[in-house]
Amino acid sequence: MLELLHIENIAVIEEADIRFCPGFNALTGETGAGKSIVIDAMGAVLGGRTSRDLIRTGAEKAFVSADFSGVAADLAGLADTGTAPDENGHLLLQREIGADGKNLCRANGRPITVAQLRRVGEELLNIHGQHDGAQLLDEERHGAYLDRFGRTEEPLCAYRTAYDAMAELLERMKALQMNEAEKARRVDSLKFQISELERAELVPGEEEELTQRRNLLRNGEKYLSALSGADYCLNGGEDSGGALAAIRDAEEALAGIRTLGDDLAELYQRLETACCEVYDLAETVRDKRAEFDFSPAELDAVEGRCDLLYRLKKKYGATVEEMLEYLGRCREELDAIETADDTLARLERMLVKAKEAVMMAGRELTKARKTAASVLEQRIQKELRDLDMNKVRFAIEFSEKAPAPDGCDTIRFLMSANVGEDLRPIAKIASGGELARIMLALKNVLAEQEAVGTLVFDEVDTGVSGRAAQKVAEKLAQVSRHKQVLCVTHLPQLAAMADTHFSVEKGERKGRTFTQVVQLDRQRRKAELARITGGTKVTDALLQSAGELLDEAEAYRRGL
Prior knowledge:
6-stranded antiparallel β-sheet, alpha/beta
């Protein structure tokens, strides 16, 4: 149950705390006072789509929080957020909307994503908007309503698994099917690319080695000059000794006194170590100088190989490894084209079995849907009688269609508004008031199937008046005995039937428009009902009539 809705800087509402009660809660007010803004705030805190335009002019951010009680610990989607209701079963949802478009959402103080907030919100509260009745005009939604009522998840999942397997086979067959001219062109193109890459005899990692060798060859004279200079310094020449000879002389000079003290022994040892190291360096430099063989022909060959790799990379991949992967794909595609006829024949045999599986799963899904449709027709018919639509007949029509992701059935809701008239599609004959009541009936039936504890109805009275309005009010009162109901309304019958009545009032202060939400006592309820009934001129007769309406509603609620 939604206990407290806190709103800050949402449109014309600067700040408001609305403490909802169990049972039937009604919100009334002048057109434009901000009733729908309260509904928008509920949608926002439940993860609905929002716009920065929702933020009050001059404010940097908007904030909404909703405190729910009686929340089950195993509520769907809640485990993904890493949070849980407190020990009293309370769950606090919060959403902050910034002017920069950023959102900050929390569940019991723990940050969560908007998607997680939406998933949890769907299990706590259901909003029936004033335009939802028009959804009944979209026949593509009728199957979804039936599946939702019939809980056909299992057969629908089995069907979609079979359908997806069939669709994958069809895609594979489509990829293999091409005319002969197109096939010949593709084969020629693949063979040319394969031949060009195979002639290159690509080797993984060779590009890096070639680059290093090319740099070395391009700087051959400099390389030899440096090595020669280092060799002369280390090994010396015909006329002088090098560093190695000098270190050896120093080592021999200290050899005779190394036993005279620990420090001299250590010094001699260091010279000995240095001599070994310099000797290794001298040999390495000499070997590198001897093994380097500069050849202009080799440089030309390396340059040519680098140029070839550069040209191939522009066509087949950024690296040698990528070009080799592309070569592998070309070989696979060529092989697939050349063996396409055999592959197609094999896939066609598989497709026959896949289609049989789809049709079998489709029949099971249709069977489950027809069973659910029979029950839903009876339930909707009963709800419509309760809503003063005794002469209306409601039926669900099935017709076959080619397999599609949603099944093999075309499902349509039909109705007959008058005795003796044939059943026809709702979109063609239902009036606005009939649509509203049929949608209300459908929502009520679906709500009984779900664990959602709070139902919100935003102006479900559109197109409804008189006796029909009284029936709608009674139906909402009945629903409120096992679900919390929040209803935005313009009808006195609905407002009078509520257990708790709020007035949404708009005013001005310091040149700014402000909206506040006030809970009404009986005296103010009478005045509000009189205003709804008679407009701006509230007479004693209207007040008396409003009091009688409240008495009758209270008597009806006591009888539930």
